[in-house]
Specification:
- By secondary structure, this protein is of the alpha+beta class.
- 71% of the residues lie in helices and 8% in strands.
- The longest helix has 42 residues, at 149-190.
Length: 291
């Protein structure tokens, strides 16, 4: 008798351990995707702020005029940064790309000095870029303004599509993962269906029967959420240098939001799934428990 009781306890512990591991893995994936979703705007900003203009300068522009122009550009609200590239530096960069010294072949350096201008993300839509292009051309030091128009359109279009995709996909992912957790918990409750029926036979009320299952399930759901968050934050810290610029590691609000969401989701799904599963077996007759 004591041996059978010990085996039952072991089987119950294993079923809940399996549930906890499953919940941890699912919540880990949800948390990881949550970090991506919450940082989607930062990623879009990071991509957009790599869009910029190249202001090609007149050949006779003096250095003092270039410095004055660069200061004016840096003071413009739309400009995030500006970098001056002189003729010699431009020639070296092109030589590196071509793999040969074209200045020796031509006998002179045909390239002009330029200023690379990076913009803030809010000014990288096509309309704003067109206005800025006209404004930059009004500077007397500037001969020509170039930027990749097709690339700008592609980036802006893809950012909108990715944003919509993330919203739809996160909703589907949440439904799928909730179903997985629900099925895992139902399987763990299924192994104790005869215990539930025995408690009913001795006169225990439904709320009394549900209480220990719900409390235990909430505890395991909380434990699974904590394990998932620890794994998630350990992964992010391990690849912090690679993720810098894509994920805002200094923004604690994002990580706190993911942590709270994971914990709340683990508790809510565990509670709801347990209540539904226990109620199902409470309604079943003894003969039905064998199927």
């Amino acid at each position: 008798m004591a041996g059978n009781k010990q085996k039952l306890k072991t089987r119950i512990f294993r079923s809940y351990l399996t549930s906890t591991v499953s919940i941890s893995m699912v919540l880990f994936l949800i948390g990881m995707f949550g970090v991506v979703v919450l940082n989607a705007e930062r990623l879009a900003t990071y991509v957009r702020e790599n869009i910029g203009f190249t202001l090609i300068l007149n050949d006779n522009v003096k250095e003092i005029e270039v410095i004055r122009l660069q200061k004016m550009l840096d003071a413009t609200p739309s400009v995030k940064s500006s970098t001056y590239v002189d003729k010699e530096t431009a020639a070296k960069q092109l030589q590196k790309e071509l793999g040969e010294d074209f200045t020796g072949f031509l006998g002179f350096n045909p390239l002009l000095a330029s200023i690379d201008v990076k913009l803030y993300a809010a000014y990288t839509n096509p309309d704003s870029l067109a206005v800025l292009e006209k404004n930059f051309l009004q500077y007397p030091q500037v001969k020509e303004v170039t930027y990749q128009r097709d690339l700008v359109n592609i980036i802006n279009e893809n950012v909108r599509k990715i944003g919509l995709f993330l919203i739809v996909f996160s909703g589907l992912l949440l439904l799928i993962f909730s179903a997985l957790i629900n099925n895992t918990i139902r399987m763990s409750i299924y192994s104790q269906r005869f215990v539930i029926n025995t408690m009913q036979l001795v006169g225990a009320t439904r709320s009394f029967i549900r209480r220990p299952f719900v409390m235990r399930s909430i505890l395991y759901g909380l434990a699974g959420a904590l394990v998932a968050n620890i794994l998630l934050f350990a992964l992010i810290l391990s690849y912090s240098s690679e993720l810098n610029g894509v994920i805002d590691l200094a923004n604690l609000n994002i990580f706190m939001s993911v942590f709270i969401f994971d914990v709340a989701l683990g508790i809510i799904i565990s509670w709801g799934s347990t209540v539904l599963a226990v109620n199902k077996f409470l309604r079943m007759k003894f003969d039905e428990l064998f199927y």
